[in-house]
Amino acid sequence: MLIGLDPVLTPELLSHLRAMGHGDEIVIADGSFPATTVAKRLVRLDGVGLRRVLRAILAVLPIDESEPDPVLGMEVIGNPDERVPMHAEISAAAALADDRVKLQLLERHAFYRRASEAFAVVATGETAFYGNVIVRKGTIDRPVIHG
Questions:
Q1: For residue 91, what are the domain limits?
Q2: Catalytic residues
C-alpha cells in the first residue's frame, strides 16, 4: 500500500502509467469492450467500475493540453447526439482532473481503431453501456519537489 494512492492503481497499472510519454493514450474500458483483441498492453481490473478506475488514474496522470480532444468517449450507436449516464460520469471525472477538458465522442468503429493504437487498455468490470474512454497523457507544468 502507498499513501495517497487508490489501491486500484496496481503495480502493473502504475508501471504502464509511468512508462507512457507525452501524447500516449490509455483506454479505460467497460466489461463489454474487446480489450484483449485491441490491447497492446492489457491491465485487467474486472471487479472495479469505470468511475473509480478513471478517477484513480486521473489523480496521477496529467491530461494533455497541447492538442484538442484529450478525452474521448464512444458515441451511442445510431444516435451520435445522445448522451448517456456514462458520458456524464466520464465528463465529471475529467472535470475533476482539469476543468478545461470537455469530453468528445467518437463513432464506435473509430473509437476501436483509436483504441488499438493506445499505449495500454485497462479492462474494468463496468456493466453500464458506453463506459469507455481514451485519455491522452500530457506533461506536468509545475516543478516536482524531491526530498
A1: 22-136
A2: 22, 64, 112
